[in-house]
């Protein structure tokens, strides 16, 4: 049987339609949700991502503010910019585009973002809260994966979820989120032995490896649910789509899967922040 296509573009459109209503309501109260994006240097892909995020804000009536700093920016200079944004009541979310140039202490910069504005879920404070299952904003790609499974009524409870990847923004937090939803989670990484055998036992597979076409269909259990967070040059995911399609009961495509939902989660979390912490002029 053909698998259900977990259509991220459709999920993202629905999320954004809901957000438009919330943004309108906020504006009537004198608060325009605003996402500040900070880009350091001239990496063309990062510049494209930042532009896409700004455009996405505009499409739902939000504001965005783009801060573009030169490649030679120091950690201290970046921290000063982040402090200013933290103190600016008209900014509700801060996104520091990464990677930043190597002379910058990226962790220190992430940590400087105030928890109320950490809509990209990059601070250790936000990560800790998310791991414990309360508080502010999770990292956007893990949030997108959870949004997709909820949209399609996939209940992770009791299922074996195998997450391939353990990065702080993706593999680790999505493992925690699945665990908090009562999945039994195995998190794999580059030192994991016999990965295909672990994947073969998975009811849910999350691919977050950063290697094109890495997860093979013949590793999968028949009927597995496959969520591909990967995004590699040439619009290629981290799973081998054709062979996984033949085995899965549900699968995210690339493009049009996790990617568009990730951006909508960034918007949603900025609107959440504006609703929670936004100050009106009155
Ligand atoms: P990352 O920081 O490079 O992490 C990759 C992870 O995969 C690491 O934990 C690494 O293990 C693990 N890994 C590498 N080789 C492996 C192997 N042979 N077997 C098992 N695990 C292996 O990447 P990331 O930032 O998490 O991104 C992962 C993917 O998601 C990329 O394709 C990226 O483009 C995509 N992504 C998409 C979005 C979106 O919006 N859709 C957002 C972010 C990322 P170690 O920890 O041992 O090194």
UniProtKB/TrEMBL annotation:
GO CC term (a single one): cytosol
CDD domains (UniProt xref): NAD_bind_m-THF_DH_Cyclohyd
Gene Ontology molecular function terms on file: methenyltetrahydrofolate cyclohydrolase activity; methylenetetrahydrofolate dehydrogenase (NADP+) activity
Pathway: One-carbon metabolism; tetrahydrofolate interconversion
Residues bound to NADP(+): 165-167
Enzymatic reactions: (6R)-5,10-methylene-5,6,7,8-tetrahydrofolate + NADP(+) = (6R)-5,10-methenyltetrahydrofolate + NADPH; (6R)-5,10-methenyltetrahydrofolate + H2O = (6R)-10-formyltetrahydrofolate + H(+)
Biological process, per Gene Ontology: L-histidine biosynthetic process; methionine biosynthetic process; purine nucleotide biosynthetic process; tetrahydrofolate interconversion
Enzyme Commission no: 1.5.1.5, 3.5.4.9
Every Tetrahydrofolate dehydrogenase/cyclohydrolase NAD(P)-binding domain range: 139-276
Key word rRNA processing present: no
UniProtKB keywords: Amino-acid biosynthesis, Histidine biosynthesis, Hydrolase, Methionine biosynthesis, Multifunctional enzyme, NADP, One-carbon metabolism, Oxidoreductase, Purine biosynthesis
Residue ranges constituting the Tetrahydrofolate dehydrogenase/cyclohydrolase catalytic domain according to the UniProt record: 6-120
Function statement: Catalyzes the oxidation of 5,10-methylenetetrahydrofolate to 5,10-methenyltetrahydrofolate and then the hydrolysis of 5,10-methenyltetrahydrofolate to 10-formyltetrahydrofolate.
Subunit description: Homodimer.
Family statement drawn from the similarity comment of this UniProt entry: Belongs to the tetrahydrofolate dehydrogenase/cyclohydrolase family.
Protein name, as recorded: Bifunctional protein FolD
Native source organism of the sequence: Rossellomorea marisflavi
High-level lineage: Bacteria, Bacillati, Bacillota, Bacilli, Bacillales
């Amino acid at each position: 049987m053909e698998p259900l296509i977990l259509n991220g573009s459709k999920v993202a459109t629905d999320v954004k339609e809901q957000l438009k209503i919330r943004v309108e309501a906020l504006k009537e109260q004198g608060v325009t949700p605003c996402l500040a994006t900070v880009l350091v240097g001239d990496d063309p892909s990062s510049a494209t991502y930042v532009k896409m995020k700004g455009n996405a804000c505009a499409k739902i009536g939000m504001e965005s503010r783009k801060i573009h700093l030169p490649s030679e920016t120091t950690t201290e200079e970046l921290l000063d910019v982040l402090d200013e944004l933290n103190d600016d009541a008209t900014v509700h979310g801060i996104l520091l585009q990464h990677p930043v140039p190597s002379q910058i202490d990226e962790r220190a910069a992430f940590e400087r973002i105030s928890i109320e504005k950490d809509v990209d879920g990059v601070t250790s404070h936000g990560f800790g809260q998310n791991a414990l299952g309360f508080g502010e904003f999770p990292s956007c790609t893990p949030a997108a994966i959870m949004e997709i499974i909820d949209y399609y009524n996939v209940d992770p409870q009791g299922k074996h979820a195998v997450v391939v990847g353990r990065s702080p923004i993706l593999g680790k937090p999505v493992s925690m989120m699945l665990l908090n939803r009562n999945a039994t989670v195995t998190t794999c990484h580059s030192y994991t032995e016999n990965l295909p055998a672990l994947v073969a036992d998975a009811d849910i597979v999350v691919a977050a490896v950063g290697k094109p076409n890495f997860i093979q269909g013949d590793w999968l259990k028949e009927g597995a649910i496959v969520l591909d967070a990967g995004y590699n040059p040439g619009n290629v995911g981290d799973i081998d789509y054709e062979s996984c399609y033949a085995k899965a009961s549900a699968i995210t495509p690339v493009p049009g899967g996790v990617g568009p939902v990730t951006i909508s989660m960034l918007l949603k979390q900025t609107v959440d922040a504006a609703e929670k912490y936004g100050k009106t002029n009155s």
